[in-house]
Each structure stands twice: as C-alpha cells, then as structure tokens.
Amino acid sequence: MSETTSAAETAAPHRYTAALAADIENRWQDFWEADQTFAAPNPTGDLAGDETLVARPKAFIMDMFPYPSGAGLHVGHPLGYIATDVFARYRRMTGHNVLHTLGFDAFGLPAEQYAVQTGTHPRASTEANMENMKAQLRRLGLGHDTRRSFATIDPEYYKWTQWIFLQIYNSWYDEQADRARPIAELIAAFADGSRPTPDGRDWASLSPAERESVLGGFRLAYASQAPVNWCPGLGTVLANEEVTSDGRSERGNFPVFKANLRQWNMRITAYADRLISDLDALDWPEAIKLQQRNWIGRSEGARVDFAVEGHDEPITVFTTRPDTLFGATYMVLAPEHPLVDTIVPAAWPQDTNQVWTGGAATPAEAVEAYRKQASSKSDVERQTEGKNKTGVFSGAYAVNPLNGVKIPVFVADYVLMGYGTGAIMAVPGQDERDWEFAAAFELPVIRTVQPPQGWEGEAYTGQGPAINSANDELDLNGLEVAEAKRRTIAFLEQRGIGEGTVNFRLRDWLFSRQRYWGEPFPIVYDEDGTAHALPESMLPLELPEVEDYSPRTFDPDDADTEPETPLSRNQDWVNVELDLGDGRGTRRYRRETNTMPNWAGSCWYELRYLDPHNSEKLVDPAIEQYWMGPREGQPHGGVDLYVGGAEHAVLHLLYARFWSKVLFDLGHVSSVEPFHKLFNQGMIQAYVYRDSRGFPVPATEVEERDGGYFWQGEAVRRELGKMGKSLKNAVTPDEICAEYGADTLRLYEMAMGPLDVSRPWDTRAVVGQYRLLQRLWRNVVDEATGEVTVTDGAEPDEATLRALHKTIDGVTGDLAGLRFNTAIAKITELNNHLTKAGGPVPRSIAEPLVLLIAPLAPHVAEELWRRLGHTGSLAHADFPVADPALVQDEAVVCVVQIKGKVKARLEVPPAIADAELEALALGDPAVVAALGDAAVRKVIVRAPKLVNIVT
Asked: In CATH, what number does 10-51+733-887 get?
C-alpha cells in the first residue's frame, strides 16, 4: 500500500474500495443463499411455494449449458451469464416469477482425456472442476435458484436421458398423421393386417429377429451398418457436424475417414419439414434460422429409376431438374454406394475408354483403389475441390429411361452418400460440376436448355426454353423450366419409373460414441444379436468402474481399423443375466458398449430445471405447462430467453428441437419447441502477443514502447483473438474481483458494447466503472463517517426530476431490450448530474437511482438500499416507473432555416402541431427580416425541431 493510498483511506475510511466491495459482496451472497432469495416457486410439486409469485407472469431465462473446464473461467466466459442475470433481476423487479438457474454439461471428451493422462476418474476431476466453477460464479453474484442445479453425470439425471432414448427407440414416425407414435401401435397394425409388412409377408410368420429387422426400418432410434466418420486418432466415430471442413476432427485435429460400421442413429430426418417450418414462429436471429434451413436443405424435384444392364435393381437418383433428363449422358455413384459392390463386372467392357479406368486391370481393382483414396477426404473437401474432378468407370452401363440410350456408370467422390440417394444422373450441359467431369473423362454433352446466343465452352445453369428434349410420347421442346419439370414428373409417375418428391440435405443423427465418459445405452442384445430395451425399472443403467478409460486409438492415418470401446473390456458388466419382464424369463444378454454422445444430456436439460427432483416423471405436466407451455406470442411454447454462442447454431439447437418435438408428439410435454427466444452474445476478445516463431508469450509481461511491443527485450507482434490459457492472455474474473469487486466487473462487461457483438478486453478501462460505483456511493454515504447523507424533506429541482424520469424511461427500455451498455451510460449520466449538482441528494432521487442500478450492480445496490433504511433484499422491489409528463422536455429548440442557413432558434412545446410551428417561424422577427421581399415557395416542417423555408 502506498503512502498516498494510506492517507486517502485514513481521511475517508468509508470510501467504496475493493476491500469494502469484497466485504459487501460476501455478505450479500451469503444472505441470498440463506434467504433463498432467487428461489422460483412452482405451481405444484416439491418446489411449490409463494402463491403470489406463481400468480405473476413467468419468465424462464436460461444460459447455454457450461462445461466445467479444469482451467476455470476467464473473463470472457461470464459475459452471457452476467447478461442473463441482469435481465432476470430486472424481470423480478417488474413483477415476474423468474426461473433462472445453471447446471453443468459434464459428460464428454476433456474429462476422459484427462483421466487417460492422469489415471484420475473422470467423475473426480469433473466434480472438482464444477466446485471451482461454482465458486467463481457465486463470486459474480449470479442470482440462480440453486435448488434446481444439477449435472448431466448425476445418475438421477441421466436416468431420464436414458428414458427419453427409450421413448424415441420405441416410436416411429407416422407420415400420414405427421407425428411420432408408439412402436406398439405399428406392431399392432402389422399383426392385424391393417398395415402390410414391407415385403408383404404375414407378421406372424416372421421370426423375432426378422420382426426386429422390420421395426428397425421404422424406429426413430435405430442401429444400422452405415458409412460413418471414423477417426483412428481418437478411436471413435464422429457426427458430420464434428468434422472440420478440411476433413479432420474438431477435437484433436486428427484425420477422419469414411468407414462402414454398425452405429446407433436418430431418425431426425423424419422431422425435417417441421424443423424448417416451425422456425418461422421462433424469435431467433435470422442468421441462425438461415443456418438451420441450409443445414436441413429442403429441395423439391423427382426420384428417377435407371435400369442397370444385366441387373434387376435399378439406380435411383434424386434430381431437382427432371426436365433435363434427356441430357443425362452418364451416371455417378458415391464411392460408399451399396450398388457399387454388385454392378462392377469381372472385366472391362470392349472399347472402354482408357481415360475412364484409372490404369487398373479390372473394374474391381479400379474401384477398390479409388474408394481407398476417397475415404481420406471429408465431405466438404469432396465438394470443393475445384475443376480437377476424379473418378473411375464402374464397368457397368445404365439406360436413360426417356430415350433408351446406354450411359456409363462412374464412381466419383464429388457425389456424397449423405445427400439424396448417393447417385446422380449427370447432365453436363446444365451443371458445372458435371461439365468439368465430362471434360476430364471425354464424355458427351447434350444441352437441354437453350443458352443465350454465343454461349459456349461451359455449362448453362440459367433459365430458358427446353431443347433436345423429346421422344415419341413426351415433347418438352420450347417449354420453360417450370412447365417442363411438371410434365416430366407426370410422365415418370405414369410410367412407374419415378415420382415427384422432396429431398433434404439433413442426414440421420449419428448417436454412438466409442467412449467411456458418456451415458450408457439402455439396450441389451440376445444370443441372436436382436436388440432389447431395458424396462424403466432398471434405469438408470449406471456406468461401471473400469481400469482403462481410453478407447483404443490407432495410427491417425490408418483407415483400416475399427473401434474398441472401454466398456467392451469390462466383461462382467457387458455379459449379464436379466429378466426383462417380457414373459421370456431370465436370459443371458450382452450390453451395448458404445455410449451416447455428449449432446444427449443437453437435448432436454431445460425440462429438468423445471422439476429437478422428480423421480417418478420426466416432468410434472402442470409444471411444464406453467413454465414452457404455448401462450400468446409463443405458439410453440419454450424458454422465454435462451442466451449462448452462435457456434451452436446447428448441433445443439437442432438436436434439442428434435427431442422436444418427439416428446411433444408422444404427449410428454406441451411445448413443441424448447427455446422461444434465442440471443447470441458476442465474444470477449483479447490481444495475443507472438514471438518471432509465432508462439504466444505472456500478455501481462509485454511492454509497449516507441510504438511497438516487447517481451524480455524481444520485439513481438500483437493481434486480436480469443482469450485463453493456451494463448497466454487469459484474465480471470477472480483477479478483477480482487482488485475492483464483482460489481465493477459486471458493469464493465455489460458496458463494453452491444451484447451481441465481440469486443476487446482492456483491463485498464475497468477503472471507469469502478469510479462510477465510487461516485454513486458518495452520493448516498459520507466517506468520512459512513452515515447516509440523503435528505428526506428536500424536493429535487425540476431539472433533476426530469433527468431521473428520462433515465428511468430509457433504462427500462434498454434492460428489456438487452441493451445493457446504453442503460449503464444513462445511469452514469444521471449519477454525474447529481455529483455536479452538489449537496445532499433527495431520497426521492437516491432510492430510484439505487433500484435502477440494482440489476447491473446488485451487491452495492443491496447495501445502499439497506443503509437507506429498508429491510430484506431489493431483489423483488418494484422497478421505478417513469412519469410520462416528466420524460418529455417542457420545451425544445426548433431550428429555422432559409435556403439551408440557420436564421432563428425557437423554444416550442414538444407536441406542437406542424401548422402552428410554421406560423411561429414565419412570424419570427429574425425570419421576417431575413426574408425581406423574397417570395416563399415552400415551407418544410419537421415538428418540433426543424422548419426549412424555400424562397
């Protein structure tokens, strides 16, 4: 402590300092916890409470699930948490019953990797991380209902995750009813013959394994052998969304390959239309809605069957341009397409173009080599490789169904198995990729749409009349695209070789991970390999203890490997004897040894917040209806405000919407959508300093001098980027709280800029909000004596009264609109007005000012409120209400211009009419003198602030 600081504190022992802030903050945090200040009562159940609160409008405010990292929080992490806390506190003070809490998304890869490295059980490290994070968040003064908190790793939580999985597993999508229904209803329809089985056989004649195979084609959760993203370096498969654009794992940056493996999937594609259409009623950023629409990728077109010479099974394609079918001169199958294995002949057909073969002796050799090459590329790479198209001839020919022409069938990686049917009819005249492939492989081009005059040397993808498109029964020539498409689809349907259809880019959700630290599947297999669901009475199926937490990993570049899971090594857990209650008695089963992905727990956590201790039901229907049910302005129901990063636009948000819709269809919830309003906060960035090698150096040790930056005498370069431990630029909230107090940190993060934009952190600027709180404190408390200085008898002058009500009006709108930075600016302006006015502040001004800042700086506000003579917490006090008569100025200045030059300034009432203002302006002596004999041509009035006279 310096002598200057010591002298100042001696002279003003009751000044608002970091030490006083720490004392105030600790005391009020203890009070809130003991008093359960933020406990939100339910209308029923074990959290039922104050009926007067339940009768208020409800507000369910949520943050995106945090993962408890071992590194703890840096100041960028709490940005959203502070924002939702400010909004929740504001809503409480405006008469709402507010549910605001926070749990932990605690399964996942980081804890497992730490366990592999250290031998520490993932639960132990995760729980330690959670305790550290809880302490850090508590220090920020977040007003959470702690009774409702939980972690996804709690068996009582993942019991219900497993239960929801079984609801999905035991359901199918009825396209006629456009909703999910219990699989038992489908089984009954098969059994009584009201619905034929897919192959027409009688249901009673099918074996149990055959029946399960049929049902697997309908279940919303199903296991199948399918092409997946296999990452040998991680030892697990990944969802498409977890693979980067350059074909590597999002975690670890390992190569990812295509492989055929048996995996669990969720039939999210059944909901594709509803996932798109229901976006319209949600209050979400348009950019997020657009990302979801693009990911789902709805397109209308036709399914067309192409017969394959010498084979019974046709190649089915989906095309958005059936009108170009006459121009199909070759076909392409994705390397993973199952027909590739059956149509490849033993030898090349006669006169095969050598360009088509890749130099291989046989079609089988060519295809095998090409498939191996393609497996090392990501879907994005395959779609964006430019004009250098690769592929090989399969050796097979298909027949164009409209003109009977034989066309070669190629295998090429620019076609994806994950979109459409994994096969295309190639029309090089009308498609740029097909044109490039045709040029590379010397294939014919037939234009089917008339290009503009002089168009040569490339595909034409625009509109125009059809050409070269006629046979004896169908003539499209001269027709525009829309009519040509309509007639082609009708012809295909009439001949039974195709039909109009809708296609989606969205693929079913890969739901298996070869991991230990995740929810076990409540599935067992009998001796025949048939899957059976565990009865609800056996939930939760808890994770067993294992000695080795690591899945078997491989050489990252070795694609010819297969997963081996940690659970598969625990044979005592895997092989069990159970009575599943299905009438078959006790039998021997084998457990599923994959675990669910970390997304599973975050698909439904909003529901657990509602009814966190219910061990009998997922959620009490009355409680769910109260907090999340549909209401005016929210036709699909859902959380009132959900705040988190835009990086979850597809993964988490899409998955959670899917689960919510299934639960709605099955009657478990009243809300069709999980989150009504979504707000994406920006990112707090920080300067990164890099040495000559490009390595980050400690930001706190960098010196700025002579216009440059130096670390240990070496010049370093500065760039703006993320904040984090690895970049050596992290600032912890603990540091800021210790130096200035939590309220200062809260104010600074909210004042840095609009909540939805990124902003750079500057520790030196924090002091500005610290001084605001010091000035606020001085306006209420005497720094020398600690006594309250506000006056009870004195009335404020009119200027101060108007300043207060303008501030109330502005701050009310700003807090409701999440414009916290401008709210703080308005409060600062009012506080400065009081400081400049000098003298004691009237109580009628001081108390509203304290209430205004309470959502933003709750600790100091509580302390001042108590010192002003109030008991209890102000958390539920009424937020100030502006007097409309005092919000408007009594008079405003109107500028009068003649030919663009100011000639007079008039003080007029704010509500003055245009005609009255025009008359005043024209009668003003200065204006009359300035006009002289000039004739007035036009008077433009913008009441109350402008009159423009044109002569």
From this structure: 1.10.730.10
